[in-house]
Amino acid sequence: MKRIFKIWLPVIFVITAISCSENDLEPADKIEVPEGYVLVWNDEFDNGQIDPLKWTFETGDGTDYGLPRGWGNNELQIYTTSDENARVDMDGDVSALIITALKHGENDFTSAKLTTNGLFSMRFGRVDVRAKLPKGQGIWPAIWTLGDNRSIVDWPGCGEIDIMELLGHEPNKIYGSVHYVDGENRKGESQGYYELTGPDFSEAYHIFSLVWTPETLTFMVNDVKYHEVAIEDDMKEFLRSHYLILNVAVGGYWPGYPDESTAFPQSMYVDYVRVFEKEGFDTPEPPVLDIEEETLGQNLEPGIAQHAIKEGFDDLGNIEVISYGGGGEPYIDTSENAIDGELSLVFDFPGGAWGGAYFQMEQPRNLSNYSHLVFALKKPESLADAEIKLESPSTQSAIFLINYESTELSNGFVEYSIPLSDFHGLDLIQLDIPFAIWNPFDASGDFVAATVLIDNLHFTNR
Predict the structure, then answer these.
(1) Among the options 44, 75, 160, 391, which is catalytic?
(2) How would you label 411-449 residue by residue, b for 16+ Cβ within 10 Å and e otherwise?
(3) Which of 44, 58, 106, 165 is labelled catalytic?
(4) pLDDT per residue over 23-33, tens digit each?
(5) With pLDDT > 90 as the criterion, what percentage of the chain qualifies?
(6) What is the pLDDT of residue 74?
(7) What percent of the chain has pLDDT over 70?
(8) CB-side exposure of 158: number of CA atoms within 13 Å?
(9) How far apart are alpha carbons 146 and 160 in whole angstroms?
(10) Gap between the Cα atoms of 217 and 215, Å rounded
(11) 310, 417 Cβ separation under 8 angstroms
(12) Which of 26, 253, 428, 457 is deepest in the core (most CB within 10 A)?
């Protein structure tokens, strides 16, 4: 993996140089260049169409990119390449890139996600994006970056810089954040915010900026600094190159979900994207990538997931357990407290943020001959509810524990028996995630710290 990283790094810079040729740049007399900088890449969106030499689309629900459905955040939209979702058009007297989220029916949404992945990347400098933002409950526009090594190191080990995120129910407030893997292989982040006192961000264009040096990441709105992050020794993600991303998501754990107050369509208008470098800046060499250092969470022993499965139940085949989240993902362990076999599986949720864990089968399997999902949990009284989700390659469905009665077992466990018919719209012929538990809540609806033991998971007929 390290050899791959070293091979591709020079190619990235060659691509950058090609993308930044003088023929690709807007004439300098049309662009206000910050003092001490030179323009190296830009798109003014004034040619009537999206430039395929500068932007590429990511499409679908995230599974084609190695993410759980919903782009890892339980988002609702499907990203497309349709000009209904992304086009260059006039917004008054501004020629802009317009990314539009559309509602086609109940829980049926489309939008667009554009990136410069493989076409342009940057490492240090300044980014200015002039944009007007959408609003509404469940609407989530973003201007951000990911590390070029995203294909070989999982998020957040690739690094993420959120130049701008807005939660649609707070249209006067934007966030600037960074996400990374810290020195203890846990998710690290730093976040600041900026609030308008006048008309909200949907009423006018504003310039969202990132100033990136080897020492700091500085976030600004209209040249006003509101957040700065010092790049510490365990933040090497921000000493490597990143590509740019523009998108409008619908729903997710953080923004919540659209309701009857949400109007569609909702659009983000981007007047321009400009990238500058410091004049005379001598770019230092990037650190060598250490995959283990930048990998979130644990190195789990092979087969650890089997401790949650009923002994003798073989219809799930080879299976692995994956922990994922935005800081609320559980630590995975085993316990000698079990009701089936010698060990149960432990999910230790830290609380405070969204997260969960799921079982992934090696290949999809047909479980349509069963009527019920059965599993045993040992959970604290503070855990009032959690989401149980099953998925196939094309469908997903969830129930909530609070809606089901349990049967007391020994050793503090209770058993749930969930009719598979309650997982509405689920394709049981091609099931590949036979169990997931997400987002333990307390009675107030807050993410709760909870140690959950899971055992005797199987499918049966009742």
Answers:
(1) 160
(2) eebeebebebeebeebbbebbbbbbbbbbbbbeeeebbb
(3) 165
(4) 454 555 579 99
(5) 82
(6) 87
(7) 93
(8) 16
(9) 5
(10) 7
(11) no
(12) 457
CB 111 within 8 A of CB 131: no
Identify the CA nearest to 274 among candidates 43, 441, 52, 442.
43
Q: What is the pTM of this model?
A: 0.77
Q: Residue 243: phi, psi to the nearest 5?
A: -110, 165
Task: Indicate the residue type of 321.
Answer: V
**Tell me, what's the pLDDT at 179?**
95
Phi-psi region of 306 (alpha: psi -120 to 50; beta: other; left: phi over 0): alpha
The question of whether 160 is a catalytic residue gets the answer yes
Sign for the CA dihedral angle at 435, 441, 446, 452 comes to negative
260 is catalytic: no
Q: Are 2-278 and 304-460 in the same CATH fold?
A: yes
CATH of domain 2-278: 2.60.120.200
Task: State the fold for domain 304-460.
Answer: Jelly Rolls (2.60.120)
Greatest pairwise CA separation for the chain in angstroms? 77
What pLDDT does 360 receive?
Answer: 93
CB 395 within 8 A of CB 425: yes
Residue holding tokens 């399997």? 365
Domain regions of the chain by residue span = 2-278, 304-460
Query: What does each C-alpha distance from 453 to 415, 434, 443 come to in angstroms?
Result: 12, 17, 20
Summarize pLDDT for 90-105 with one digit per residue, the tens. 999 999 999 999 999 9
The tokens describing 70, both together, are 């919903």
pLDDT in tens, 264-288: 999 999 999 999 999 999 999 999 9
